[in-house]
Write a structure and sequence with these properties.
mainly alpha, 318 residues, 14 helices
Length: 318
């Protein structure tokens, strides 16, 4: 009983983390409808993440917050994959595709990460997990085929986002073992700031026509998925095992899909079959004893949490 009580706050933090990231697609839609462009939201996230997480990292770790010269190229590559490209593709895709489709693509991250790790020779070949890759990709392929051109560009942008994030998890793995996780996160946001002029193309960061609801939605995105979610995840992983974090991973795509249905996304045979296939794939990849060696929980724009001594499921954030 004392053990359960001692980790209750960490479980709560991990659960709230999933909610922070799981509500992002829905809140993003509200911001879009209220006048913000995907590029504007990406700019707000990158700037606020660099400032807030940078301050916290420097206060907590001081000299340890300064990366070594040999790590700078890897940090820049990881920041492009995990922050800049990730943000652009996810937000532009979300603008054009249903929320539920975003949830399905998020659920594909463990399979994509394992596939990339196999190519990079960071993982051993396991038949059940390869089957998970096949089932997950087949599930999404049939969804794209059934939907046709209706949301094709948005779906492909979302899929590109998840693939970039999966590659990022593999590329950033050495950084996760060398630096505190919040330090790595802060530097990746900072190293992404040079892309702001590109994201600012045709993007008004403070549109005069933006509604009050859109500004509240932007505030939510800045406070919760961009800052608080990362910090709560780091706190949770100081006491919880990586396999526990992997179990929580299932809740995020489920929450995104549920909010999509509540938003008005239709339930069709195609997306129902895709959901079944994606969750089966997640189970095959993340089940205990067969999980990829990447710590964390859930935002496709943050590095893995600090290693907890176990092999873990991949991050699934947005």
């Amino acid at each position: 009983m004392p053990r359960v009580a001692s980790t209750l706050s960490h479980h709560l933090a991990l659960a709230v983390t999933q909610v922070c990231f799981g509500l992002f697609p829905l809140i993003g839609k509200i911001a879009f409808d209220g006048g913000f462009t995907p590029g504007a939201i990406a700019i707000w996230r990158i700037v606020s993440g660099a400032v807030v997480l940078g301050i916290i990292a420097s206060m907590l770790h001081r000299k340890r917050a300064i990366p070594k010269r040999r790590s700078l190229v890897r940090i820049q590559i990881a920041s492009l994959l995990g922050i800049a490209i990730n943000q652009f593709c996810f937000l532009e895709g979300l603008k054009r595709a249903p929320i539920a489709n975003a949830g399905l693509m998020i659920g594909l991250i463990p399979a994509l990460t394992y596939a990339v790790a196999l190519i990079a020779r960071q993982e051993r070949l396991q038949k059940a997990r390869v089957l998970g890759i096949v089932i997950g990709l087949a599930a999404i392929a049939q969804l794209l085929a059934q939907e046709g051109s209706a949301h094709l560009l948005g779906d492909l942008l979302l899929l590109s986002n998840m693939l970039a994030y999966s590659v990022y998890l593999v590329v950033s793995r050495p950084l996760a073992t060398e630096y505190p996780a919040i330090t790595t996160t802060a530097w990746m946001f900072l190293f992404s700031t040079w892309t702001l002029p590109l994201l600012a193309w045709n993007a008004d960061v403070a549109p005069a026509e933006a509604t009050a609801a859109a500004w509240w939605a932007l505030g939510f995105v800045i406070v919760f998925p961009t800052s608080l979610g990362y910090l709560l995840n780091l706190y949770a992983m100081t006491r919880l095992t990586a396999s526990t974090a992997a179990a929580y991973t299932f809740s995020q795509p489920a929450l995104v899909i549920l909010t999509g249905v509540l938003w008005g996304d239709p339930i069709t045979p195609a997306n129902s079959m895709a959901a079944i296939g994606v969750f089966v794939a997640m189970w095959l990849i993340l089940r205990r004893g067969a999980t990829p060696a990447f710590p964390g929980t859930a935002d496709t724009s943050a590095p893995p949490a600090e290693p907890s001594g176990e092999r873990t499921g991949s991050d699934v954030r947005t």
